[in-house]
Fold this protein.
Amino acid sequence: MASPAQNNASVAALRQELERESDALRGRFFEDQDGESLVRDRSALIDSLIEKLWLENIAPEEYSPAGLTLAAIGGYGRHHLFPYSDIDLLFVCAQPGVEQEYRAAIRRLCQNLWDIGLRVSATTRTVEECEKLSEDNPEFTLSLLDRRYIAGDYALFQRLDGERIPDLIARRRPALLLVIGRLVQARHARYQHTLFHLEPNVKDGPGGLRDFQACAWLRRLTPEAAGAPSGYASHLLLERRDESEVAHRFLVTVRAHLHFRQRRDDNVLYWQAQDEAAMLSLGLPGAAAIESAQWMRHYYRQARAIFWLTRQMLESRQPESSAGGVGRALLTRMRGRRARGPFPGCSVEDGRVWLVDEAAYGDPAQAMALFQVLASQPLQLSGEAEGHLGDSLGVLAERLPDGPAIWREFRRILLGAEAANALRAMHALGILELLLPEFHSIDALVVRDAYHRYTVDEHTFLILEHLHALQHPAPGWEANFASILREVEEPELLYLAALLHDTGKARSDAEHTAQSVVVAAAIADRWGIEPSRRDTMLRLIQNHLEMSQALRKDIFDAETVRAFAGMVGSPLDLRLLTLLTYADIRSVNPEALTPWKAENLWRLYIAAANMLDRTLDDDRIAEDADTAAIQQVIALAPEHSHAIHRFLAGLPQRYLRTRTPQEIFSHWQFAAGLVATSAQVSLTQGSAWWDCTIVTHDRPSLFADLAGALTAWGMDIIKADAFSNRDGIVIDTFRFQDRYKTLALNPGEVDRCRKSLIDVASGAEPVERLLAARAHAGRVQQHKLTIETRLAIDNTSSTHSTILQVIAQDTPGLLRRISLVMAQQQCDISVALIDTEGEMAIDVFYLTRPDADGAAVKLDEPHGAALTQAIAAALSAARQG
């Protein structure tokens, strides 16, 4: 046994050896891009280091001591050790007493490994413990399938390797197969069951390295003699296995590159890593540098091969007799679904559908009928059906009819409740492209922004999925949008527009809608879609961004609604556009359609529908106005009718439409109380945000100071508006998220925050002091994308205000900086709408300025130009600072 001094010297030498050899491995990898050689050579390197430390810490002789052996398991066990992966070690003891005897030595060996710079995950078990399936930790049992000897009692390892583990597999094969299936399903669920993420995880994501390893385990647990498929199914799996092994080599190289690039076990393929991989043509030996989008398409196609094999391997494992097994039995327990064939020659079993006659796959009518079944029920194609359809592509291409006949059959697919899954299957097999060659251009297409999470084709299928889900809506706003869908007489036009609305993204670097319209028009003409229906679909595609853009304005401003309703033109187009906008936003990422956005979308729909029905309101409230909404407020305090009328005079009509009578009454009470105090503030917690209302007398920079105060408290403002009446009473409302949960976790801070806002509103507390106190807590924010600042002035959409839209990088304090410049330019804010998409802030302000007589007027051209220049300069200075 080495002395402490000798051990320290040895550890230092081994650390130097590890650093030297790791640098050499890195250099070779970037020369040959051979990930397989890298992980194999790194495993051998770690083997040699561990063997040396074993001799120093455990036993000075090879194959000793008796009763203790060391094995590599997991990825290390199968010689797949990536640069920053954990080292999975298993110390196996013949008897429990052996562990006690060598506990200190084992701990010292593991500590030495950490000291030389390795991450070690070590487990100690007796032989008997290894032959039991761990219900609490089944992953450990699966890791034993990849075991190999490193040091110690070789006879003991042979007993584990040749007797105990095989016996465990024989006894618990069905349970192990079920464990694999459940682990795969749970992991896929974390990624929404799709591999088409813009920043995929090459290890854990669907189609990643864990999927490939699941296939390897399935093969090992059910060898050919134990019930694996035969005939065509066997040929198909062997063919797919070859494809997946090519894909596996590619993914190994990609993961190795990520480890070197990120210097940790981080397996997410971030955008910057994609750019580097494309520049290096990573995994594409001999190829020149290519575009990132092109390289990512290659990645998705490789991952798709592994994803396909994983599904088919889970399906194809046939049950054995008494020895146990799985296959259709596994899928039956996972899905529990069985049905009869819906038409002659079609069979359905265990959630899989196929054609009985192999020749029928080359018949377009039978193939389309098969996908119509797939669209009508929650089913999947069997592996054999996918293989036969893939083999029949050439025959189908020759026999497919054209014109209205295709539209009649395709329409039935679009109308099915499971249309999205049917179209995904058609797309994966290349059949969708036979019908719609134009769709191929967005296959696995990456269009980068920090808002979208999926490729363009997957985003499209998700839109259809969300539209059809409205047939069985959840209570709340889903039910609202479902009521619109029920009013649509020909929803197939909506579904076809959804399928084609982004096809122009591959054809244009600028606005894609015009290109998408060109594509859709050609398809409609080719399929003989009736002209009026064709025009409805094309208008929907042409305008599919308009409602999202209208949401960035004041949707309670009559002019905004009037302009939007005028663009839409008809109640039918409004219904279709609302539904497409709803599903489009919801399909961007799982968090995109917040309850607030859904509510605003619904309100805009109602307002535009009313506008199209000619129900309009005046812009401003007159002191003698006597509408039903005003009467509801007065009914709460009839004796104060005159005072309430005076409070409402000069406020915009949208104030009445966006506030309940109780809220308006409370605002009047706040205003009436301004005699005793300079400002009134309420703070109310919602489900995912806080609402803050400040009622006070207007003054220069008030809105900017209040926004700055909330920023100083660490709040993220997501919506804000400002109203003022004829007497100069301001009602400013902010909706914000408490990102650090300061208020929720510390109830006493709510009163302190309220007092702080009152002090800022009154001028008693300079907001600069609050911001300075908060500055030490600021963090340097890393942005994935750089958002170019854009400012646009609109003097036509509103009759009473100039509209300014600001698009900029979303940063803390952005609203404060913008509104401070507005105050300096003597601009009054009547409404501010704050929105964020990913890292892009989209803020819209309705502005006026006093003329020579003190009347509020729009900004003229010189004032508008000066304002935009000043805001641009302030934001530029903030970025540089």
Observations:
- The chain has a mean pLDDT of 87.
- The first strand starts at residue 68 and ends at 72.
- The radius of gyration is 33 Å.
- The first helix runs from residue 4 to 32.
